Amino acid sequence: MDEIIARIVANLGTQAPISRSALADLEILLDYTLKTDDTIDLENFYNELSSRNISLNSLTDAISSAMDSGLSSSNSILASKVYLSLLLSPNSPVFTLFTPVAFLSLLRAIRLSVKNHSSVSIEESLSRSPGRKKKGKRNVGGNKSRVESRDSEENEGGEGGYDVKDLFSLLDKMKMVMDLVHLDRFSDCLKALVQTVCEIPMLAVDYWGNTGSFRRLCELCSQVLTEALKSEHGNQGETAAEVLKALAPLILSSKSQIRTFGLLFVVNKMVGMGESCVDIMKAVANMPKYLVQKSPEKTEARGLAVESIMEIVKALDSDSQVGFADYVVNMSQGKGQFRLLSVDLIPVLLMSLKGPFGFDMVDGVENSRGLRLLEALIQRCSDSTVGVRARALTNLAQVVVSLSGNDKSRTVLKELMGFGHEGINGINNILKLRCMDEKAAVRKAALLLISKLTALLGGEFDEELLKTVGMACSDPLVSIRKVAVSALSEAFRTHSTRLVTNEWVHSVPRLIGDNETSIQEECENLFLELVLDRITRVGSSCSANYDPIAHDAKGKKNVSDTETELLYPEGVLGLLKEICNTEVSPWVKKICSGLGKKKKLQKRIVTSLQNIIRTSETQWLKNCMPIEKWTAPPGAWFLLSEVSAFLSKAVDWEFLHHHWQLLDKYKSVGQPQSPLPGEYAGKDKIDLESSSVDWARDRVFLLQAISNVSMELPPEPAADLAQNLLQRLEGFNMHTTEVNAHVKALRTLCRRKASGQEEADNLVMRWVNQLQSKASKVLDMCMSEISDADRISALLTPQSTVRRKEPRMSDTVSKLLANTIIAVYTIGSLVIICPSANLETIVPTIHAIITSGNSDPKSRKQTGPVVRMKQIAPSLYLQAWLAMGKICLADGKLAKRYLPLFVQELEKSESAALRNNIVVMMADFCVRYTAMVDCYMSKITKCLRDPCEVVRKQTFILLSRLLQRDYVKWRGVLFLRFLLCLVDDSENIRQLADFLFGNILKAKAPLLAYNSFVESVFVLNDCNAHTGRSNTNNSRNENRLFSIRGNDEKSRSQRMHIYATLLKQMAPEHLLATFAKVCAEILAAASDGLLILEDTTSQSVLQDAFLVLSSKEIRIQTNHGPSSEALDVEDEGGDSAKNGRAITQAVRKGLIQNAIPIFIELKRLLESKNSPLIGSLMDCLRILLKDYKSEIEDMLVADRQLQKELIYDIQKYESMKAKNTAANMYRSEAYLSPYAAAKSKKLPENVKVASAVADAVAAATARSVLREVNNGASTPLSAMNVPKLKSRTVGQNRESNLRGDRPVGVIESLRRRQSFDTDDEN
């Protein structure tokens, strides 16, 4: 040891820094002393230093210099070990050796060694990785051993490496040193220690990961921090605050290892120490609030922060938890990022800490804490920031699911959410608004909440809310439609009320026509589950559930609602009734067809439907009701007719035959409008008409079912049925709805029972010719009778200038006319199933009917009687047009001849029914003869402005289908005329138009809105400046028909709605191009004189252009907007940021190069003409440049006057806005409670609004004082004790009063005195 001491002392005697060898010798000396506890050698070392005049401070400085050298991690670690061993050696002069500088050097050496060691190891591993192959199996079992032995492998060679055990030894010795050295006098050293120890796990996690070395490292760090929290090292509260502050980055980290280390230390160690130390517990209680302030904004990181915060909150006592909950409630009223974090914390507080915040308490005090949290969450559902309200709705759905299991909680939830109470703050009203939100994320979250509220509501659904969800099933976004379907289906699955059933049936089945395949499949599966399976269950058990009640003395009793519910539970009757609705039945047919082709239909559905019909008939007879009035439950025959096409073997022929005989037996012959015998004809006309329709409808569906199962019929019943059908058709006395069913059923029977195709065609042709011959005879006979009656009437009636009345028909002629109407309709039906039929004898007669009374000279050349069928028999006239249309579909030559007649009748007819039928026929012609009808498309589109809503809707639907199938192209005026449907008087048509432009057109023709936008501005204002020519009278009338002229508020709002719809379909680059086109083709045209500014239509075009350029739909979000808008779209990547910068530059460039010069020239022109449009121009400029206030001087360098005016207008607008906001805030405070009013005293963040609020408060105070003065009340000034000044002597005053002489100043002040008027009236 003497040689070692000599070498150490010799090295310290030189001026050079202490060498590595000297540090190694010193380590040997100190280790020997610590192991043997023999201090002789160490005392000799100290004596040798003293003899050489080397102080202990010099030794400390030398070691500190070695720790700070930074040449290699091994030297720093070795020096650090030596320094700590020196402090721990027996009889060590600790207070002499310990210096703050040396201790800080020690901490720096530890931190840098860990950091450099991790970075060097990672670089070496990356440098070796390219040589390895990525393919092949990984040696999972050997990974752990390689990682744990990596330290020794990498530290054997190279000067910079060190053994990880040295780091463990350092931390262990650090803990022991802290028992000797109390850091209460060295606050900087304590802070540095805490920061270093907390930083070590974060630096080492990338290298060590989940290895045992890392766990050992974290354990040692925890021990050091625990030691630092002792009272010997200073105020425990301050130390705890430093520790928590240093641990915050670890707790908020995305790496689970270090986050776990930080949380475990706080929850286990510090909370445990806090039980005996109030200061530590206070610091821990404030830790969640500190983490809230430091939490990140990204979604994933924010979620981890919420989990970490809640782990700490759970470890606190109930009082601290309540305090944090109050803090969260206040935070929900703060800035955007804090509001977003609060809505994430509230549901976790409610669901995790049900003790202090649950609703199952008896006392209201505890309940109020949870209620405050829930109220804050509900308020955030209407937040101004998109991300906040979307997240609030999603989290509220989680809360509802969590708290709905308890009856007490469910009751409190319903009361708090305002179910059953109308008001703007009720959850129903909030959900209706959020389901129609402009942001997709909010709509999706609202629909998710509705689906979760299903169990809570218990069937108490708001009708308007259900309609809103139904409308969401047609949302432009696929994800929204899926969520809406799920929400509505969940409500229908749980509660089969009438409102829910109706909304589901009218909203979900129509999605079978959706463009998304997954939605179509979901629609089929839901229909199978919620409709067919439900009907199957009810049909299988309806007879078993029925318990007949005792009849009264008369033996007749109507079926009560309770009995009906027992017969048909789960609302099956209402469901069947709705699926046969005319708006729903086409989609149901398509769904049944799809399910049948996929072989998903089961035989049980047929059996169940038959049971439902049998039970209905049995129940009717048991109540002694006449069978003539019985009809099956609406929809039962319809659904059976659809499913029987794929389940023909499951249908019972005896069942069909029985009901066919029943319906046919009581059909009143000669009265196609009523199925009842004459004895019931005069009882109730409305009931008869309704029963007649139901009766005929049941016969139609029954016939369809019979035709579907015709292959399964025995030969003799099939022949009898065919003969019966033919006889019924020859009688021409059926309802028109039955004719097609009879014809189709008869054709199906002939084709399926024939041995071959040729035989089947011959059979069909034979009875078709037979029916046509008889129909022709009936038609000729009717025309002859009507002509004779008209001729006799003309002879008996004297000629007069007065228009004579039409003669009253005899009963014989009326009956013959009714049969003729059915005969004409039958002719059309026969042409559809047999286009090759010979119609040479029928066409002239039908031509005579449709051209009767026509002034066309070509019609006069036709032979035959000419009578006024339009006036005498309007029904026959309408059916003749319908039959001619079907004939033209079968004969192209006739179609070419008669197309002009159809178009002429479409324009001139006064019958809405006839116009509707002709529109349908023209749509069919367009499919069959596309080129022939194309030239008449402008005439057809005029029906979009028809006075009748049914005609407009029919035209819109038919043209939309033709456009989707490319039979009609979006060119010419077609697109511009469709725009008017967006503002149609009918809400139904407006919804269809929104769906067309928002879904179909956006996907099929995305550039159409962009290409036609500027032209639409001119067309909607009926301005021809863009065409450069004047229109004729006819074209001018058509243009006015499809324009919205006028500057009134209604016309302008309708045009702006159309513009906004078009702009919403455009991509950002098209919005920029549209902005440039509007400036170039409208504003520039006006400044160049192409638009006549004195013309009202031109003024409307120019004003619309200003409104469009300043609308929010054409504006693209840039980084000039407020920071709160950044929360609207979360987790934006680098590409989004680059795109945002590119768009910002493009917008700025477009403003400077295109818009600003045009605006300057146009402003000068408008000023020269004293045009009232100057105000609109300035408003537009102000809105365009409000985000570029700092750049206005550069942009408007060409017009300084405009620059000053615009800056003044912007300042004035902001000032007025601030004053209005302040006035609203001040008025609202008058209705607040004292607690809420005290909270509202905080000044707003906006300086201008705060100043305006202060001005408003001061003005209100001044007005109140002036009002009191005018009323003669005492003021605070009058109550003050002020000294009284003596005036002149009494004699002088009396003398002056007698003379009437007063001081000049007093008289002047009285002259200038004004009354204390208030401005309350203003």
Descriptive notes:
Helix 10 (164-180) packs parallel to helix 12, helix 14 (256-274) packs antiparallel against helix 15 and helix 61 crosses helix 63 (1247-1270). Helix content is 70%, strand content 0%. It is mainly α and 1322 residues long. It is built from 65 helices and no strands. The radius of gyration is 46 Å and the shape is elongated. The longest helix is centred in the middle third of the chain and has 40 residues, at 757-796. Among the domains are: 1-116, no CATH class; 182-316; 418-505, Alpha Horseshoe (Leucine-rich Repeat Variant), CATH 1.25.10; 508-642, no CATH class; 652-753; 760-794 and 816-890, no CATH class; 1219-1275 and 1283-1312. InterPro entries: ARM-like, ARM-type_fold, CND1/NCAPD3, Cnd1_C. GO terms for molecular function: histone binding.
